[in-house]
Structures are given as C-alpha cells and as structure tokens.
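Dear colleague,

Thank you for sharing your sequence with our group. We've completed the structure prediction you requested, and as agreed, I am returning the results in plain text so they can be pasted directly into your records. Please verify that the sequence below matches your submission; if there's any discrepancy, let me know and we will rerun it promptly.
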Amino acid sequence: MTATTTAAPRPPGVRMTDKQRRAVTAGAIGNTVEWVDWAVYSAFAPIFASQFFPKGDKTADLLATLAVFAVGFLMRPIGAAVLGSYADRRGRKAGMTLTIGMMAGAALLIAICPPYSAIGLAAPAVLVLARLVQGFSAGGEFGTSSAFLIESAAPHRRAFIGSWQQVSVGAGTLIASLLGTLLTSTLSDNALATWGWRVAFGVGGLLGLVGLWLRTAVEETDAFTEMTARREGLPRPTPVRDMLVKHPRAALRVIGITIGGTLIYYIWVSYMPGYAHAAEGVPLSRAFLANTVAVAAFLVMLPFGGMLSDRFGRKPTMLVFAVGFLVLSWPAFKLIGGGFWMLLLVEFVGIVFMVGYSANCAVVMAEQFPAEVRTTGIGLPYAIAVAVFGGTAPYITTWLATNGHRDKVWIYVAIAAAIGVAVYATMPETKGKELQ
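Please find the predicted structure tokens below.
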C-alpha cells in the first residue's frame, strides 16, 4: 500500500476529492499566515532598523537588522530537527499547530517591543529572541506542511498539490508586500518609522491566530496514520538518526536542490524592494508595488508549473529555472536601476523562471524519503541550505552594493544558478515514483 492513499488514482484533469480540497485549503491558508509573519521582517527591515539600535549611520542600522534576519535562519536547522522529529512521531497536524503558534507569538512580541531609545539594549535583545523563535518555527514549517500536502495527493497530482505549499509561501510574501505598499503610500516617513511598521507585525500576528484555528480542525494524513499502525509495537523511531544513517544521499540531494532555489528566491521575491531602494535609489513605495505585481503573477503561475511537472517531470521543469537565471543574472542587475517599469520587467521575468523551482521543491523533496522520516528528511537538509545560502543573501547583496561592488552581485546569483544546473541535470527523476 502506498503512502498516498487519500484518493484513488484518477485520470489527469479530474477534480480533487473533498478531502483533498479541505487538506490543501487548511494547509495552504495556515502556511500563508505563517509566512506573512516571516516575510514582514525582511519587507520592513529598512523602515524599523533605526528603532532597535543606537542612532547612527542608516546603512549600519540596516546591516545590523539584516544580521538579525540571518540569525533567524541559523535557528531553522534546529527547528527542522526538533519539530520535524515531533511531526514524524506525533503527526503532521500536531507539528503544524505548534509551528504557527510560535510564529504568531513572536510577531506580536516584535510589534509591541519598545524602541532602543526607551529600553536600551533590551530592544535588540528582544528582537533577536523573537527572530530566533521565528527561525525555529520556520525550520519546522516547511517540512511539516510539505509532507502534509504531498501525503494528501494522488500519485499523478503530487506536484500540483505540492505547488500550493509555495503558493501559500508566496501569498504570505504578497500580503507582506501589500502591507508595505499600503503603509508606505498612506503614512508619512516619521509615522512609518515610529509606529507604522508595528501595524504590519501586529496584523501578521493576528492572522497567525486564524491559521492556528484552521490547523486545529484539519484531519491527520492517511499516510501518517497507516505508518503509525504499521509500527505499533516497534521501538520508538529516531527520525534524525534514521535520516542520516539510512538516507544520507537523499539528504545531500535535498541540500543541492535547495541551494540555487533558496538564494535566488530570497533575493527576487523577498528582498528585491529593499535592494532596489538601498542600492539603486528606486523609491520604496514604487519598489514595493513592482514586487507586489510580480509576486501576484507568481502565485497564479505556480499551480500551472506543478501541472507541467506532473506531465513532463521534475528534472526538465527545474532545469528551466536554473538555466533561465544563469542567462538572466547579468542583464537583470544592470537594468534594476532603470525605474519602476524596468524593475517590474526584471522581477516578472525572474518570477517566470522561479516557478520551475518553487512548483517542484516540496514534491521532489518529499519523494526522496519514506513516511517515517519524511518531515525530518525534507525539513532538516532544506533548513541547513536555507540557513547558509538564503539567510545570508540579503546581507551579502546589500554589503556588495554599498561597498563599491554593485557590479559583482549578478555573479553571486549566477553561481547559485550554475549549481542548480549541475544538481538538477544529474538527480534521478521521481515523477511517478511510488511513495514508501
């Protein structure tokens, strides 16, 4: 019996079952509000940077705030190991409920934290603590929600269903970008810097409570239930050890799959408005608007990218992403400073290529592991790669741009894309593979 038993195999194009639809809705909406809280930080970093550190050079404040952004990523492997093991032992539902509660609580803590001028060093300490909690939560979220969605899909629809994991991540980024567009367009610079950014964190935290309610009502996957019954009477599983001992090549493959995708994703989708503003002088409100339009198009295209993967395979659709950015990197960074329309064009073309990675990442990682270690196997290697490459991307690009090396940023992106080409061209095709 396969791990994907929530629906019998059906011909392509047949509508999802009610159970699948409920699973995708609950998983995707919950994931959306989780990632609103995560994306708000990077979207508003240029605005609230001066609130948490001693007043000084604006670039130094921004770099300090982005360093805290990177610190959050360092917690992701720990969260992936701890929360992934929890979800592999206690269930996908239990794991998803825990992660969203932690993320929402941390966002609300940042929203109400007094500035450095009021409480001194306690302000950056609270910011670091909250970001550590968010990083811990995010580390467990990707593996848990990916396993939940893929285990809720019919075999020939796994990429389509899995693409909704990234639709929900993109939706969270879109909402954060919409908040940025709304607040930067309606508030004065002073109001935005003193209290406007707190509204964004507060909205994210409150949305997290909605996601928590949705996740408490979702059903556990059949794959986890059957695996638990199959292991009844056996020794308690040790997911991290089992992944490392029994599936080391699969774990390394997940790291390789992630490197190019996560680095380019965080530059193109999460940090492009801040980069375009700080490095190229594009007005922040216009940069947010370009980002919002591009991310909205990204969300629409992702399910179609999943359909293409289910039809043609994981390898060819992921290679389109990597080769596309290898070619796009140099002209893109030359054109970003050309104003709103040129920035929008650059973002949109990059988003089209990004679909090849984002529509596939959840499904191709889930297809590497059996149910006993699936959440940990997806989450831990992914989190390690994200911590090393995704978390440092905004800091490195900002440092390069503000220290006379703006013309070198494209090389950074091109190297990541080249790594992707090498990994995707040599990995085994998993389309149609029976889940264990």
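Summary note from our side: The mean pLDDT is 83.

Kind regards,
the structure core
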